[in-house]
Amino acid sequence: MSNCVIVGINWGDEGKGRMVDLLTERYDIVVRYQGGGNAGHTVINDKGKFALHLLPSGIFRSGVVNILGNGVALDPENLWKEMQEVRSKDVEITPETLKISDRASLLLPWHKDLDVLEEKRLKDKQYGSTKQGIAPFYSDKYQKKTLLVGELLYPDELEAHLQDLMEWKNLILTQVYGTEPYTMERLKAWIRDYCEPILPYICDTASFLKKAQSDGKNILFEAQLGALRDLDFGIYPYTTSSNTLAAFAPIGSGLPSARIDDVIGVVKAYSTCVGEGPFVCEMFGAEADLLREEGSEYGAKTGRPRRVGPIDLVATRYGVEAQSATQLALTKLDILSYIDKIPVCTHYLLDGKVIDGFPFPAVLDKAEPVIEYVDGWQCDISQIRRFEDLPQAAQAYVTYIEEAIHCPISFVSVGAERESIIFR
Ligand code: GDP
């Protein structure tokens, strides 16, 4: 039996979905433990190309049980639509292959409205939300002002609880934001259209996981976003509203007794960041446009162009530590093949001093990147499957990063497809 968490080391979009899809072969269960439909895990395999938002990336492997844990922001509308879409490409999703925790909280329709309204109110001070209702959802979860998914199984009690929540939320919608109030008719239609279809998938996943643990099953925990977006350890307030760190996996999945054997951190061979907030190593102009185009760096959920930069060793080292990563997967190395001299952000310059520790969020905006250049390889590496077959400069790039961030790189990804991987 082994427990492994796959996490992002940086700002998200590192290629976690691609790694989970690959490694599920070794696992019986895949659990999503935080976040919601604001993720965009792109997976390319024998069934086609998918952008998963809420479904765990183990959904394509037969025999793997996929769980949406209690830490997830469960948006039934997005989930049901995503299930239909994935099913239309011949992927089987049944109550045996997908289980939703009865203790997950429900993302309610007004959470998305509030996300949009608040970003609009903020004007040029926006957080760059994906407008999926995640921040309003988690605020309400911690205020105890939303529903548990399991309440859907008790319609009478559900209606009374929802009525109370609606009365409170209508005060905010009408008096703070000046919009239309919700009605129970509208909420009942939402329950009928999106909650009822998912009823067969709801169960006590904590008990299921406990039994799986005592049966010696192998469990893979799948994170969303990256260490720098963690609510407590990231670049607050430009974080997400949940804990993306591996340490949260046992809690958010519903298996608090889980001992984590392995934390695979996913790092992109360069940096990308979606949304607002400090991004010290950001590149601009033609150099940035070229990297964005080569790497197809546009958000899977929103289509927004991602901000890009060289690999940031300061932020990456911090992410590795925060995640307690035991090994790393370096993704998208193939994308750097066009560059002659590859830039690397080795340190930050802050208040006239060269530093290698990641600064406190409030001063990040003042930090400047210190850039060094290493040799590129300038040839196609996407078909290479053995480390020793990579050009010398590409091997040197990988070992240079590994040494700089003090963590072994066990996987090097050279393409988006499942098999485009080098095991070291
Ligand atoms: P996630 O949210 O961490 O799963 O990452 P995303 O799916 O948002 O972004 C990663 C993108 O890079 C996806 O479009 C993947 O298909 C793609 N990708 C992942 N690994 C590689 C790789 O090694 N090479 C290339 N060219 N694309 C990759």
Question: How would you portray this structure in words?
Answer:
With 424 residues, the chain is α/β, with parallel strands linked by helices. It folds into 3 domains: 3-102 and 202-263, Adenylosuccinate Synthetase, subunit A, domain 1 (Adenylosuccinate Synthetase, Chain A, domain 1, 3-Layer(aba) Sandwich), CATH 3.40.440.10; 105-198, Adenylosuccinate Synthetase, subunit A, domain 2 (Orthogonal Bundle), CATH 1.10.300.10; 267-423, Alpha-Beta Complex (Adenylosuccinate Synthetase, Chain A, domain 3), CATH 3.90.170. It is 30% helix and 21% strand. The strands form 5 sheets. Strands 9-7-5-2-10-1-11-15-19-20 form a 10-stranded mixed β-sheet, with helices on both faces. β16 (341-350) and β17 (353-355) form a beta hairpin. α2 packs parallel to α6 (184-195). The two termini are 23 Å apart. The mean pLDDT is 94. Guanosine-5'-diphosphate is lined by residues 8, 12-18, 39-42, 44, 300, 331-332, 334-335, 413-416. The site of guanosine-5'-diphosphate has 22 residues, from α1 and β3.
Number of separate strands:
20
Which fold name corresponds to the CATH topology of the largest domain? Adenylosuccinate Synthetase, Chain A, domain 1
Bound molecules: guanosine-5'-diphosphate
At the first level of CATH, the class of the largest domain is Alpha Beta
Largest sheet: 10 strands, mixed
Chain-averaged pLDDT: 94
Rg on CA atoms, Å: 22 Å
- How much of the residues is beta strand, in percent? 15-25%
Second-tier CATH architecture of the largest domain: 3-Layer(aba) Sandwich
The end-to-end distance, rounded to whole angstroms, is: 23 Å
User: Residue share in helices?
Assistant: 25-40%
